[in-house]
Structure prediction request, 440 residues.
Amino acid sequence: MELQEKLISSFMVMENLGKVDLDSSIHDIRTKAMASFEKEGFPTKKDEEWKYTSLKSVLNHDYSVFPKEESDIEFKDVKKYFLHEIESYKVVFVDGIYSSYLSETTHDGFDICLMSSVLKKPQYQLVLDNYFNKIAQNNNSLTDLNTAFTIEGAYIHIGKNKILPKPIQIVNFYTGGEKDILLQPRNLIIVGENSHVEIIERHQSLSNNTVLTNAVTEVFAGKRAIVDYYKIQNDRENASLIDSTFVQQKESSIASVNTFSFGGKLTRNNVEFFHEGERIESHINGISILDKKQHVDNHTLMHHKSPNCESFELYKGIYDDASTGVFNGKVIVNREAQKTNAFQQNNNILIGDKATINSKPQLEIFADDVKCSHGCTIGQLDESALFYMQSRGIPTKEAKALLLYAFGNEVVEKIKIPELKTRITKLIANKLNVKLGFDM
Prediction:
């Protein structure tokens, strides 16, 4: 049975087993999403948005859609995957099932809890009506698939005038209890006026079994809210991730999504921002360091709908061996969005003879009083700089690593959590296979 047919039948099984409330308004959303996925199917390279990314090798598995049993893991075995140097709230899932043992949630002044609770409890109906699938809808068939199978994920709701005392970590572990597993976490994050939150998200496989994650996150930033979102992608070679993040911003809010892609077989990041007010500031940053046959596809959309707003986008890539990078960034400026300042940049270094980068920065501007720019560079290490460092006694391996680190450091410097900046620095050093003689 092909995966698409299996998913269609699994959706009917999910309804028959009572995993969803058939009387809720969410059921109608699920049903429409499933009908859309059934019609469109999985994207192929014939689709312009997937021109450089094929899912054939990822979809050619007999995935288990629902985990057969709950798996337990000890904190000591997974401690290294947390940012354990600081205190944080934690929402942790093991094979798609919430782990109360590893989590630290709260309802004290704000909600840091589970999507499953929101989907089942009547008091959250108004929240669902106002926010669930409001900015993720009408995207693509994979988002529709996630919507149809939404059962679990993180739910974060911060009211007005709240500054969270510590970051929130959303961590999804996969134990390998199933030979091949497909998981579809769904996160809903609502940040009220004048509030500030920092979120760190990670998907981590603990075995070499095949896992495909189709994740969707919706983020709503209220007036003057500040949202800093960090995604750490450093998974095993048999793990693939399709990660779609949608951000809606209200007047005078500041939001950033920062993605660090170092591991995994195939990674597709869809990041879309929508402006719904004036004086908004948006940041999208990413760095990819790939080797072997790894593939990372970064697709971004920055949609300026209102005047007097700014957006800044910076992606850098380092590609070794036969790895492949894709960058497709689009900035849309509506006719009403006068005085927009939009910047987009993609810089890449190829250090492998068979490495590939496909870069496509785009601007669609319908306003006449704007300041918009975009650019792309693709090259190799600066031989003169390398020679200079070698002449000063720095070994070739370390000299290359320092130059590559310096190349990507502009993205690292945008991290606002010092302990996370140190962690990312170490991950970069490990990926470059060198010990850097300094700490950040």
In short: Residues 3-276 form one domain. The longest strand covers residues 210-221. The chain has two domains: 3-276, 383-440. The chain has a mean pLDDT of 92.
